[in-house]
Amino acid sequence: MREKPLSAVNGFVGLAIILALIGLGAGVLGTTGNGVGIVLMALGLLLASGIVMVQPNEAKAVVFFGRYLGTIRENGLHLTYPLTTRKRVSLRIRNFTSAKLKVNDVEGNPIEIAAVIAFRVVDSAKALFDVDEYERFVEIQSEAAIRNIASRYPYDLFDQEGISLRSHTEEVAAELKADLQERLAVAGVEVLEARLTHLAYAAEIAGAMLQRQQAKAIVAAREKIVEGAVGMVQMALEKLEREGIIALDEEKKATMVNNLMVAIVAERPAQPVIHTGTIY
């Protein structure tokens, strides 16, 4: 099914024709009692069944005894074929927020994920006749697409190369939108935006993963501290030798490096030891 436009007469012109037929028929019937008056009135009432009103940002699909005739998109009052049924479909932009889904990422870790989908109907015929309850269809297919995307990538990379759900939100959103558009094209729906709104580890592994993240942060901090400490010790030794403050052999240099590294890297402040000489 594909949407096709349906030509319709202006509704106010149609009302004028209907009233004229009914009035003319009533006049003929009242003056002559002729059956022509009844026919004219019946014709006016028949045309009245073709009056349809279309609100802004909505469409009316016209069906005549099971046959799709076309869709009226222009808002206002219209006169279309009589004895037809008109199915309304909204063309407004709508949001759908999925439930929090529990799925496994590509590494098998259970995670909780949810997304918001902005969409609108662009083909009323597909939405009404190609799928059953297109709004429910959007919900089910959206959840299926979210599960599919979640199973393709890891929650986090932990220094690995690639795309993760947590750190590459734009890439994940673009792929989710493309996947959804492919699924919902059959329903005549255009996906305007698809974005994750909730992403977390499942409760049973949240504690362990938090410890892993904390350990990673501690290791990274230690690397920075050691790197800075080595630079400070090297700078101190070079300055002592350059300015001739003190001459150190290799053994004393090693001792000083050890003491400086301990003082800089240690979490607690260094305790000074005062050498007062040897007491006999």
What does this structure look like?
With 280 residues, the chain is of the alpha+beta class. It has 3 domains: 9-90, no CATH class; 94-201, Band 7 domain (Tetrahydropterin Synthase, Chain A, 2-Layer Sandwich); 206-265. The protein contains 7 helices and 10 strands. The strands form 3 sheets. Strands 7, 8, 9 and 10 form a 4-stranded antiparallel beta sheet that branches. Strands 1-5-2 form a 3-stranded antiparallel beta sheet, covered by helices on one side. β8 and β9 form a beta hairpin. α1 (11-32) packs antiparallel against α2 and α4 crosses α5. The chain is rod-shaped. It comes from Calditerricola satsumensis. The chain crosses the membrane at residues 12-30, 36-54. This is Membrane protein. It holds the Pfam family Band_7.
CATH superfamily of the largest domain: Band 7 domain
Number of helices: 7
Mean pLDDT: 83
Let me know the largest β-sheet: 4 strands, antiparallel
Helix-strand pattern, N to C? EHHEEEEEEEEHHHEHH
Question: Which topology of the largest domain does CATH recognise?
Answer: Tetrahydropterin Synthase, Chain A
Low-confidence stretches: none
Helix content class: 40-55%
Keywords: Membrane, Transmembrane, Transmembrane helix
Protein name: Membrane protein
Organism: Calditerricola satsumensis
Pfam family, one: Band_7
